[in-house]
Amino acid sequence: MLGARAAFFAALFLLLTPRYYGDVFLNPKDVPFAAGYVWSLYYLGRVFRVLPRPPWSLLVRTGLAIGLTLGIRVGGLILLAYLALLLGVHTVAAGLRTRRPVPCLRLALRLASHFLVVLAVAWPVMLAFWPWAQQAPLTNPFLALEQVTHFPWPGEVLLAGTWHPGTELPWSYAPHWLLISSPEPILALLLAGALLVLRRWIAPRRQQDPARPPAGARGDGGGPRRAVAAGRARAVASSSAAIRLLQSPRRRTGRRRRTL
Question: Which of 25, 65, 100, 229 is a good FRET partner for 116, with 20 to 30 A between their CA atoms?
């Protein structure tokens, strides 16, 4: 919704994250993989928005982003699973709407062809940057993935003053690590975002007057629709207020003058 402004603040928050900023100078794997992962998710989102007929150029760019990510780490294979999941969700949703098997089957075949196009672009790009995978292009990447999931590491990790084996970390390790390694402004914004989501979820429920009879008893069915519409209106108003807060005072003043 915020466009370039959101991208600017995302980059700013990354620079304010010590772990990410520090690894930029010494980590040749994780930081490029994170960038390629986000790049791939961006194109997956664009593909999902224009289904069932995404442009060929968009599919090629999606395959290029996923292929480059795979060339850094084999964990990028999950991006292909994400793509398959998105295409499957779209197919199932279309089938539930139409309830016609033949058009649904045609749609599934069309979306499967889209997946093959992305795969046909991503796999050669991955092989170009992974010499070991070139020796057995159809098996070595999956062997590497299996090895990564069972990689033996005999080291220990310090957590809350106690050393734990790296293969036997408690469930609290990940949230504890994220909490102490994330800057306070980002944690505050995450909390604010969670509260906004909660507010949007409970807002339609508060629109119904408990003193009035249910909408089904009146036969019009308009109560829930009006409540949802009011909740959406307040959500849009909240988003508009956030955008106005991010705008410069001069820009807001100029817009007010043009309105007058």
Answer: 100
Closest CA to 48 of 90, 77, 80, 78: 90
Look at the block and give the residue holding tokens 């279309």: 94
pTM: 0.68
Report, as an integer, the average pLDDT of 102-121: 93
> By C-alpha distance, which of 241, 221, 219, 222 is closest to 230?
222
Amino acid identity for residue 43 in this structure:
Y
Q: What is the pLDDT of residue 249?
A: 52
Q: Domain ranges in the chain?
A: 18-150, 182-208+222-259
